[in-house]
Amino acid sequence: MSRYLLDKFLYTIDRDPELVERYRADPAGTVEWWERERANQVLNCHVGENSTWLKFDDAERAALVAHDYVKLYEMGAHPFLTLTLFIAMYERDFAEPLGFQLEYAQKLSAWRDKPYPDITT
Amino acid sequence: MATIAAVIASTHHPFYYKASTSTGDQRPPFAEEWVRKVEAFRDTLTRANPDVLVLVGSDHFHQLWLDNMPQFLVGNAPHYDANWYNEEREFGLPRFFMNGQQDLSWHILRGGIDRGFDLAFSNELRLDHSVTCPIITLRPQNDLPVVPIYTNIFAPPLPQPKRFVELGRMIRELVESWPSDLRVAIIGTGHLSLELGGPRQFGPHGPDPEFDAKAVEWIATSDVERALAEVSLESLWTPGNATHGFMDFMLMMGVAGEGVKADYVDTYDLFHTMEAYFTWYPEVTP
């Protein structure tokens, strides 16, 4: 389990307009590239000082590649990060205001009366 | 010493800017009443005639990140840029430039640390909508220098609710002990019940209207004792997964003072979350 790394992916993609579009258009390629090139980059450090130990497990990688925000929720990815990035990628496809946000809530409805997944990192 | 001209606690709804500036078919039906309420709230700050704003909010994973997460942080810079690409993208928020009141930042940092609050600081802080929403609603001319203070209500482990109250009390004491003739308004924004990225998000009301009614009563009467008795880090999950932002309201209750009733209270029941606006005037009327 690497909730921190899931959050780091969502955070670093969401804050970069080019990466948002790239992840929308090519999720598999973006996840593969990001894990190879960016997962171990300490955000305020020179790339020569990268970490050496961060990687996704298979289920995490698959959820990101599938744009599966329900699975990300269940895994304890930070819900604010997931919501913000997925609104950026999908709100444009819905004609009604809040159409995507309401579908998102509906897809999570099985969790409505259950405790929230652990989001600690 | 400085005068506290007003203490203001508010929700920060990032959609207000878009709702209030949209026209024609784009203008939502709830916009007129919302604008009316916000403008009435704005008058409560204007009337206080402030020179400086202390702005309490919470960075929404913009500059503060999990590799280096402070619990309480004071901006200590001469200037601040504000609002981020993803806030322009999602909420249509404009970018801002604000001046800092750096001598007050330093006074709060030095004084806070000396009183046992080991505050973090930032010499280069880009602010987000938790502190720019109240500029949009309360001081749209954006003409006053500011001291931003960020709290962690997002990334566990969070500080306990009582620490937010204690920090609020201390901010009040430190502003009152600032050697200055200026008038300071202390403005903090938080949330009532709120769900983001969960099954109860974006409903016709906030996810827990019962909590909201209690919370508004606690804030309006600054009932710190009751709020602390009923609220814990665990209990705040029940009203919705982003309700830990209520602790910023608890901080403002600490600023306002135990049991001090707000001079102005208003609420507006909207989709997604309830808006709530509170103003205290600490100056004693002669």
Describe how the helices and strands are arranged.
The complex is a heterodimer of chains A (121) and B (286).
Chain A: H1 3-14, H2 17-25, H3 27-37, H4 58-65, H5 69-75, H6 79-90, H7 99-107
Chain B: E1 3-11, H1 16-21, H2 31-46, E2 52-57, E3 72-75, E4 79-82, H3 85-91, E5 96-99, H4 102-114, E6 120-122, H5 129-138, E7 146-151, H6 161-176, E8 183-190, H7 209-220, H8 224-230, H9 246-256, E9 264-269, E10 274-280
Parallel strand pairs in B: 1-8, 2-7, 2-8, 3-6
Antiparallel strand pairs in B: 1-10, 3-7, 4-5, 9-10
Describe the structure.
The complex is a heterodimer of chains A (121) and B (286). Chain A is 56% helix and 0% strand. With 121 residues, chain A is mainly alpha-helical. The N and C termini of chain A lie close together (10 Å). In chain A, 31% of the residues are buried. With 286 residues, chain B is of the alpha/beta class. Helices cover 34% and strands 20% of the residues of chain B. Chain B has helices spanning 16-21, 31-46, 85-91, 102-114, 129-138, 161-176, 209-220, 224-230, 246-256, and strands at residues 3-11, 52-57, 72-75, 79-82, 96-99, 120-122, 146-151, 183-190, 264-269, 274-280. In chain B, the strands form 2 sheets. Chain B has an 8-stranded mixed beta sheet with strand order 6-3-7-2-8-1-10-9, with helices on both faces. Classes of the chains: A mainly alpha (121), B alpha/beta (286).
| Rg from Cα of chain A | 15 Å
Kindly name the structural category of chain A: mainly alpha
Strand order of the largest sheet of chain B: 6-3-7-2-8-1-10-9
Q: pLDDT average of chain A, as an integer?
A: 97
Biggest interface and its residues per chain? A-B, 36 and 29 residues
What's the overall average pLDDT of chain B, rounded? 97
User: What low-confidence regions of chain A span 5 or more consecutive residues with pLDDT below 50?
Assistant: none
Percent helix among the residues of chain A?
Answer: 55-70%
Number of helices of chain A: 7
